[in-house]
Amino acid sequence: MKRIVLHVGMHKTGSTAIQASLAGYRDGVFEYAPLPPAVEADRQRAYNHSFLMNTAFDRGHQRMGKLRKFGVAACDFDRYRVQCRDALEACLRTSEAEVLILSAEAITGFDLEAVRELGALLRQHASDMQVYAYVRDPFDYVKSATQEWIKWGYAGDHLHPVSYRNCFGYLEDFFGAENMTYRLYRRGHLLDGDVVADFSSWIGLKNHPARRLDANVTLSTDAVRCIYALNSYPMFSSGNGLLHYSWRELLDVLGRLFPGRFEIPARMVSREIDVWDLAWMGARLGQSMQLPPYSGEDMDCTGLKDWLGRTTPGMLTTIRRELTSRGADVAENASLVELLFQLYLECIRSTSDLQLDYRKFSADRYLERYPDVRQAGLYPFGHYVLHGHGEGRDGS
């Protein structure tokens, strides 16, 4: 029977870079599990085993939300669950490697039942299992996870919480604390400052993967402020893959327009930290974790909405300039969020190779031609993107 290396993140510790760099890796001893995508539309990211394992074992919102995003109907969830579980079992059964690597940071969000179900399947095919987890300092984790939340639609007033026991407690209960190995994720402490090289050395790979991917690049505070403002704007979204990639393009554009790093006042973050949880994690690492000192800026910030609501006229000017450079007509008195929404429509336009061009779309004529859209009270161009174009409706 083989040995299994189970890499479980935690989130925001270079997991995507590790997964993408190890995809296809084999060296005669180790193999990175060649699992299929949970849904065909996600094939480009099949190197991240999280989606497949979520679908197979997590019966909660993570599985349902992700499947819905790719247009899977609720009545098909159980069929996808069985397919994903069968795919993992087939990989475990047929792999001839001495050591099989699985990487899925989403496992840290499993409840005990899901951990037991996954673990029972792995134990059928493995003589030994070792769980590896990078752990991030609480301040850096909350900053990074909150930014990721906002990137994908969050518009609330709370920061992303951190709880190390919630991440790893069930894993320790099932796999045993003696089979859990932790390492503090700080760039300056990684081998050559590179998480892929560090992880490869940590688990004992013969060769470090030559392929490298820098993923989930951080955005600046002003770029996140733009996204946060747009998240509160009436939008149209669904499992439509084109909208997903249009949103990714928008994130890239905002990252270019507003370079820098994302910052949150330390006092806000400290509210999310349980000192006993910090001590629990520190005992496993064998070292203390860092908390930043407060600054004067911390004292006058009341919450996330206050902090991210501090937009400036310069941001509006920058977005207006970008739209003008693309040849778009820009309303003279448009607000920042209206300009951001127009920039999103520009991204849809370019991602669709001008097939979905809001500039040429006539909302009045569309509603006149299709009274069902008017009766439903739907945003005309949103209906056209999600349904009308595919149905052959005329948007000119």
Q: Quick check: average pLDDT?
A: 89
Strand order of the largest sheet: 2-3-1-4-5
The total count of strands amounts to 5
Distance from first to last alpha carbon: 63 Å
| DSSP helix fraction | 40-55%
Largest β-sheet summary: 5 strands, parallel
Shape: globular
Strand content: 5-15%
Q: Which sequence of SSEs, written as H and E, runs from N to C?
A: EHEHHHEHEHHEHHHHHHHHHHH
Coarse structural class: alpha/beta
Radius of gyration: 23 Å
- The helix tally amounts to 18
Low-confidence stretches: none
Verbal overview:
The chain has 18 helices and 5 strands. Helix 9 runs antiparallel to helix 10 and helix 9 packs across helix 15. 36% of the residues are buried. The mean pLDDT is 89. The protein is of the alpha/beta class and 396 residues long. The longest helix is centred in the first third of the chain and has 18 residues. It has a 5-stranded parallel β-sheet.
Set out the fold topology.
Elements: E1 2-7, H1 15-22, E2 30-32, H2 50-57, H3 61-69, H4 77-94, E3 99-103, H5 112-123, E4 126-135, H6 138-151, H7 164-175, E5 180-184, H8 195-203, H9 221-231, H10 241-257, H11 266-270, H12 275-285, H13 304-308, H14 313-325, H15 336-351, H16 363-369, H17 371-376, H18 380-388
Parallel strand pairs: 1-3, 1-4, 2-3, 4-5
